[in-house]
Amino acid sequence: MTDSEIFSKLTNAIVTQNIAGSAQLAQEALDAGIPPLDIITKGLSPGMKIIGDKFEAAEIFLPQIMMSGKAMSSAMEILTPELEKNKKEGEETGLAITFVAEGDIHDIGHRLVTTMLGANGFDIFDLGVDVLNETVVEEAAKHKGEKVLLVGSALMTTSMLGQKDLMDRLREENLRDSVKCMFGGAPVSGKWIDEIGADATAENAAEAAKVALNIMK
Ligand code: HCB
Q1: How confident is the model over 189-205, as pLDDT tens digits?
Q2: What is the pLDDT of residues 129-170, one digit of tens each?
Q3: Does the beta carbon of 151 lie inside 6 Å of ligand 1?
Q4: Alpha-carbon distance 78 to 214, whole Å?
Q5: Is the CB of 155 under 6 A from ligand 1?
Q6: Distance 182 CA to ligand 1 centre (A)
Q7: Rounded Cα–Cα distance for residues 205 and 111 (Å)
Q8: Domain boundaries in the chain?
């Protein structure tokens, strides 16, 4: 089987909500020597995109998205340890405090970004999903004086708006200059980042790691 045939099988496993099949295919892809990040970006993620588009077009409904999310997560269970194997130790990159915005429980991309930052030498403090801005500000205050990167994800236009409130609160608490702020998720754009006065965004987890290393220099 060619790599592109493997990628389309992986995409199809997500679209058809094949939970056991996606994990098995992820393992087969690894065994075929395909790097784990390619398996995710070229195989699994396009499946999630198709599912999102079908949902928007009312061709499928929430239960199907949930099952596709489970299929993605079961493949990620196989792939995450592989991503972590390449961990770069001993580099003073700093602490990444990662979280999904208040009201938002989409955590697949968040977990992927968190894993990639960990693999690139960041210490990780993962606050999880549906995190209040107040909590993020408290954590930023506790770590004042350290090299800290706030890494927020928002997958909905509604939850993304909370990122502006977070930036405002950081400024009010005089914490803005002690942290770097990177936000991502489908609705987040460079224009939005400029508008709210954050530092950066990234399209995907691999780019997020590169951007994060760059802004923490
Ligand atoms: Co959800 N959902 N969903 N959903 N969902 C979206 C996000 C919509 C876009 C679907 C659509 O309408 N087309 C839509 C949001 C519309 C909008 O606001 N514009 C939507 C909606 C509306 C909803 C509900 C409100 C549906 C309902 O209940 N009626 C509900 C909300 C629940 C809530 O959060 N309160 C809901 C629920 C769900 C689940 C639970 C069924 C499931 C989530 C499961 C889970 O995460 N554990 C789900 C899913 C899976 C999706 C889609 C289909 C896929 C998201 C995903 O996992 N993508 C999504 C459609 C889409 O995004 N196209 C749909 C794959 C990952 C790998 O990509 O973009 O998350 P990613 O992350 C990337 C990238 O953004 C970047 O790197 C990541 C990795 O490469 N990145 C960062 C992410 N964070 C970063 C941070 C940084 O600093 C830098 C880069």
Answers
A1: 999 999 999 999 999 99
A2: 999 999 999 999 999 999 999 999 999 999 999 999 999 999
A3: yes
A4: 29
A5: yes
A6: 18
A7: 9
A8: 3-85, 95-215
| CATH class held by domain 3-85 | mainly alpha
Residue type, 52: G
The token pair that represents 59 in the structure block:
């061709």
Nearest CA to ligand 1 atom 87: 184
Paired strand residues for 148: 95, 179
Instruction: Using most ligand atoms within 8 A of CB, pick from 155, 159, 204, 216 the residue to mutate for ligand 1.
Output: 155
Q: What's this model's pTM, rounded to 2 decimal places?
A: 0.95
Low-confidence ranges of the chain (pLDDT < 50): none
Q: Does domain 95-215 have CATH number 3.60.40.10?
A: no
Contacts of residue 85, Cβ cutoff 8 Å, sequence gap at least 6 = none
CA angle 110, 112, 113 (to 5 degrees): 65
